[in-house]
Amino acid sequence: MKRQPGSLKIALGTGVGFLCGVLLIVVLALTGGDDPAAPGTTTRTPTVARFVVPDVVGLRLDVARDRVEQEGFDVERSGGGLFGVVVESNWQVDDQTPAAGTQLVRGATVELHVDRR
Predict the structure, then answer these.
(1) Are the C-beta atoms of 104 and 74 separated by less than 8 Å?
(2) Residue 94's domain spans which residues?
(3) In sequence order, what are the residues at sequence separation of 6 or more whose Cβ sits closer than 8 angstroms to the Cβ of residue 82?
(4) Do both 35 and 66 map to the same domain?
(5) Is 110 exposed, middle or buried (0-12, 13-18, 19+ CB in 10 A)?
(6) What's the pLDDT tens digit per position in 7-45?
(7) b/e 32-52 (16+ beta carbons within 10 angstroms → b)
(8) Residues paired with 75 in a beta bridge
(9) If phi over 0 gives left and psi between -120 and 50 gives alpha, with beta otherwise, what is residue 80?
(10) Model-level pTM?
């Protein structure tokens, strides 16, 4: 009986592949596979505190800025005409984004759009 050229390589490759597959199955079975919650353990999902954006539409810009910052948010201003806002108490908030009542994490930005009082 004569062997085909390369048949030993094919047989060895098949055997090694089979053994690697068996080894992988054993390792996954022992470690719990890709299930993050192994039996007997609990998983904790971190909670992020959210805070309510105050309603500042209709207030003077200086007052509105103080209220938003007191809640822990950053303030970005839009509007203000050609020369911008020089004296904040001369400007009134006519819109805000996000809307009042929206829940955000501390440090999020609230945009105040202003117009002349």
Answers:
(1) no
(2) 51-116
(3) none
(4) no
(5) buried
(6) 677 777 777 778 777 777 877 777 765 555 556 667 787
(7) eeeeeeeeeeeeeeeeeeeee
(8) 110
(9) left
(10) 0.60
